[in-house]
Amino acid sequence: METVTLANGIKMPILGYGVYQINDLEECERVVSEAIEVGYRSIDTAQGYGNESAVGNAIKKSGIPREEFFITTKVWISNAGYEKAKASIDESMRLLQTDYLDLVLIHQPFNDYYGTYRALEEYYKAGKIKAIGVSNFYPDRFIDIAEFSEIQPMVNQVETHVFNQQVEAQKIMEEYNTQIESWGPFAEGRNDFFNNKTLQEIGNKHGKSVAQVALRYLIQRGVVVIPKTVTKERMIQNFDVFDFSLTDEEMDTVLELNQKESLFFSHSDPKTVKFLTGLGKNK
């Protein structure tokens, strides 16, 4: 598996497996077990997903040494603040059945995320977390926390796919030695993603699917990807993206698909902020 090197020297797989919206714990344990069988070692979960225990069970039952995995979780809005964040991280480690985490992110830039980040820094210094970062931090809030934190975020996980490529945001992250990570690399199928003619034409040249072309494009840009699927055949397909490369011309062609805006939500929209902060109060 290809890796990226984070600012502190930690190696992170450039391809992982995400478990967002896999709410049934039995199903989640099953699909994570299948992903492990396929070869995935980076698993991305979150407190807000409610499935950390299933991820922990699958990893434990795999019989594979803990050090071969790269486990990511995220602190949810309702657990923001120094003390609550520490308690929630301890609970995450209990559910994931591990005494350390490879990466912990602040899930959303709401509530007392500065207090949360101080907790992450403390656990990082203690060796309980190998790398720390943020998620869904747009350039303005990302720069703010990067400038005023003792340990700059090592990862920022943001919506990144062919229709919202985060080109400028990635440049800003690179100024702070922060690794960009994509959530929603397939745009959750929006904009008729899987029937996109540009991606189909490029895929036909390489004998690859639309999904594989989309993942390959991001990987060649140095973006970490965590595609989610509950189908083993697609897990295998998503994993099979290291035996071909896109040409410079093909990369430029995919770049033209960039619409430079979210297909899901905007943190600049007051309604979105009220919705997300509301979730933070209720979960």
Provide an overview of this structure.
- The protein has 283 residues and is α/β, with parallel strands linked by helices.
- The protein has a single domain (3-282), classed as TIM Barrel (Alpha-Beta Barrel).
- It contains eleven helices and ten strands.
- It has helices at 25-38, 52-62, 82-96, 113-125, 139-148, 167-175, 197-206, 210-220, 232-239, 248-255, 270-282, and strands spanning 3-5, 11-13, 17-18, 42-44, 70-75, 103-106, 132-135, 155-159, 179-183, 224-225.
- The strands form two sheets. It has an eight-stranded parallel sheet with strand order 3-4-5-6-7-8-9-10. A two-stranded antiparallel ribbon has the order 1-2.
- Helix 3 links the parallel strand 5 (70-75) and strand 6.
- Helix 2 (52-62) packs parallel to helix 3 (82-96).
- The longest helix is centred in the first third of the chain and has 15 residues, at 82-96.
- It is globular, with a radius of gyration of 18 Å.
- The model has no long low-confidence stretch (mean pLDDT 96).
